[in-house]
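We modelled each protein-ligand pair independently. The example shown here corresponds to the coenzyme A entry; the chain sequence is given first, followed by the ligand as SMILES.
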Amino acid sequence: MELIGVTPRGLKFLYKTRRDPKIDKYLTGNPPLSYEDHMVFMASNSHRFRILVDKYSYVGYGQITEREDGHCEVGFVVATEYQNMGYGKRLIDLIVTEAEIKYKTLGLYVKKNNEWAIRICKRIGFKECRLINNDEWYMEKEVGI
Ligand SMILES: CC(C)(COP(=O)(O)OP(=O)(O)OC[C@H]1O[C@@H](n2cnc3c(N)ncnc32)[C@H](O)[C@@H]1OP(=O)(O)O)[C@@H](O)C(=O)NCCC(=O)NCCS
């Protein structure tokens, strides 16, 4: 199992996964409206994405985004058909390990009702910091803690 950068197959995988209503309901941003919009977005943002590959299957993706304040925001998604098989824990571990090399503070946004995502994040050191609109948590992890 490994994280790879975005490939042509990865572009399609990202679009399909991000547009899946079962995924979208747990994410805080909006999905791309069309494949064309997705490609325009990815042309300038693909460096933020990593894809989790197990043998030849694309199973999930993560994001590492540098914010204007110099802190880092991470995100992670496992495709619906691969959920609850241990990939999520491995994915966030790999994403956080990579992000920790460069950043001192990692942040992420997670819906309040996304209990299993919150549990995974807490286990690796994220803490609930701010509740936004009574709907999503901003969680933060200090590196080395
Ligand atoms: C959150 C997410 C990444 C977890 O990935 P996953 O591969 O399903 O998780 P894992 O198999 O590694 O399991 C992690 C824990 O969540 C639990 N879990 C996973 N899917 C679950 C489900 N549908 N219902 C209840 N618990 C679930 C597992 O039992 C496990 O708990 P345990 O360690 O106490 O046994 C995945 O469900 C996902 O992509 N969700 C949609 C997007 C999202 O919420 N991203 C996070 C936003 S920051």
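Residues 2-142 form a domain with the Aminopeptidase fold (CATH 3.40.630.30).
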